[in-house]
Structure formats: C-alpha cells, structure tokens
C-alpha cells in the first residue's frame, strides 16, 4: 500500500501477518529508492546490483544494504557473479492482487 499526502508512506505486508512501514525505518530518499527498486524488479526480474545502482543513482553498496532490509520481498538468485535480484513469490502475489 502506498499512501501519498502531507507525508509519503509505504506499507508492505509480510507473510507472517506483520507489515513493514518503510517510513518508520528509513528516510524519505531511501524509502523512495526501495519502492523504485521493487517497481523495476517487477518490470525486469533478475537485475544485478550494478544495474539497480545505476537506475537508483547510488552505489552498489547502498543497493545491497537496501536489499538486506527487503529480504522477505526481494531475493538474490544465482551465483554471485552472474545472479540477480528477483521479487519473492509472496511479493509477486501481492502485486497481482492490485
């Protein structure tokens, strides 16, 4: 759920019935970057951290740090040199319901 208003808030439901309110844990810039990454992975599954870093305009280290915060929504598949990031089945199912 993405809520716009005086402040921007993103609530992402998790399989255990809990939810991540991205604005509670990170600043607006990082929050919007995480949302952008999720949107890009929905369009182009399998992107590498260097591709996501270029899209988001940050370093690969920043992208990897973001991915650690989104472990239930985004997963890395494949070998370290050739693999990429994909949305989890849970996140894909949530996107399909919209």
Q: What order do the helices and strands follow?
A: EEEHHHHEEH
CATH superfamily: Winged helix-like DNA-binding domain superfamily/Winged helix DNA-binding domain
CATH class: Mainly Alpha
Can you list the strand order of the major beta sheet? 1-2-3
Strand content: 15-25%
Q: Label the overall shape.
A: globular
Helix-and-strand structural type: alpha+beta
Number of helices: 5
Note poorly predicted spans: none
What does it look like?
With 98 residues, the chain is an alpha+beta fold. The protein has a single domain (2-96), classed as Arc Repressor Mutant, subunit A, CATH 1.10.10.10. 47% of the residues lie in helices and 18% in strands. The chain has five helices and five strands, in the order βββααααββα. It has helices at 22-25, 28-43, 49-56, 60-69, 89-96; strands at 2-3, 9-13, 19-21, 74-77, 84-87. Strands 1-2-3 form a three-stranded antiparallel beta sheet. A two-stranded antiparallel sheet has the order 4-5. A hairpin with a 6-residue loop joins strand 4 and strand 5. Helix 3 crosses helix 4 (60-69). It is globular, with a radius of gyration of 13 Å. The N and C termini lie close together (10 Å).
